[in-house]
Amino acid sequence: MDNHNNIQQKKEKLLFCGMALAALGLVAAIPTTASAKTTALAQTTEQANTDKGNTDTNKDKPIVKDWNGLQVTYDQKTHELTIPEGTIAAPDGADPTSISAIKDIDSNEIHSINFKGKLTIKGSASGLFSNLPKLEKIDLTNVDTSNVTNMDLLFAFCSGLREIDGLTDTANVTSMGATFYGCSSLTSIDLSHFNTSKVTCMISMFNGCSNLKELDLSNFDTSAVDMMDYMFAGDKNLSSLDISRFKLGNTSNVDKAITMKNMLEGLDSLTAFTFSINDDLSKTGFDTKAVWEDIGTGTVEKPTGKNKLSTSQLLEKYPTSQKQSAITYVKIAEDHPGTPSTPNVTAPITNNTTESKPTTPSTPKPIERPIYRTVMHNTYVYDQNGALKNGEYFAGQSIGTYGTKIIDGKKYYSLGDNSFVKANNVSGIKRRLTHSAYLYNAKGKRANRKVLKKHKSVVTYGGSVKIHGKRFYIVGKNRYVKKANF
After folding, report:
1. Which one of 137, 202, 415, 453 is at 20 to 30 Å from 179 when CA atoms are compared?
2. Among 407, 423, 439, which residue terminates a domain?
3. Range of the domain at 442
4. Same domain, 375 and 419
5. What string of DSSP letters covers 323-391?
6. Which segments carry the region annotation Disordered (predicted)?
7. 23-32, 161-170, 352-361, 440-449: which has the highest mean pLDDT?
8. What are the CA-CA distances from residue 36 to residues 24, 108, 131, 187, 403 (Å)?
9. Is the pTM of this model over 0.85?
10. Separation between Cα atoms, residue 420 and residue 406, nearest integer Å
11. Cα separation of 199 and 172, whole Å?
């Protein structure tokens, strides 16, 4: 019974953490490779910018707007947003309004933010500074985050952001999903003051930080974390990574399931990698093409280890049941297609017998690139005949898809390797309301006063779910509509 309850609690945590990410349409690919119109965030922003068509054309006149109960001022000449002293405290279970959602202020043109006086944030700060593509620097020294519990998507899609200062108090934060997602201009992040002891979700935390060159995680406490999917995916300029303090389902000290799908995918420039020999890296998507040597008693610059392994061999070798310890591998050669099972790194492989044509074509076959999509409703995995396979993806997780397939009249996304998921759980289907309807949250309480009018088309995800004995369809982040209204 205890095991069953733990599994159920795990699924609930995945749902709520995952839905926070799914609501903004997060994908696991590097953000710049994804079409903006395919994400819910981009759709929301596109609509918001349409609504901003009535902006005062007098560029000399500052725009003053309400933002979470504070009067903020936007200077159209300097493109600076000024936030006064005050407190932001979203209701329980809700998120505050992001800056990018302020009507009549073009978030695509905000270059700087000035905190005029102390700003206190309580509860959720999810998405607060997200989707500000021209913001280059933000100084949070005057922002009190000591009572913040949720930092999901805090700077997501701030693609021009180069510097973040003053973010020091994270002691009460429990979720950091996609906090820096798509911050593709960041080259470093000061994490020295981060307290992550209460954090359970780090899904896509640094995903798509494609210019990040270094990341000091020595202060990270991941003892409570059980969701690390796509955490570093797409960080293609990261040269070194030390996750030896992480607990990735090691053989002796972890008593919980940890999801880490494609956590280490796309680290193309990685040359030094430190981890615990008890860590299971097989599900992390670690795919850096390299031949690795452990440093032994030497250094990163001059390794003296005995093990010389390809990435696939490294994944096969660990975890071990030996006493827990950290080990560092350095890249000593490229691992090209055709590298032998035991890499020879001292001399090139030659053929001294007879000439033969190279087996590798002169023009490599193009690699089929997946399209990454976000799961909106928990979904099982099926084979090409529609039969259940082992495995399940939860709301908020990202999946790489390779086209579609119709199975028994229903549309599925292909995941490769004869694995498929129902498209309805990912991209949803449109349903028309037969009655006007309210929006509800996951607790079955009315989310707001908004009414969806009769005959309106609404995108729903997956089958209906039961909340307090009534059936609802998922229509977005922590948003549900009663099934009876369709």
Report:
1. 415
2. 423
3. 429-485
4. yes
5. PP-EEEEEEEE---TT--SS---SS-----S-----SS-SSPPPPPPPEEEE--S-EEEE-TTS-EEEE
6. 334-367
7. 161-170
8. 11, 14, 12, 23, 19
9. no
10. 10
11. 8
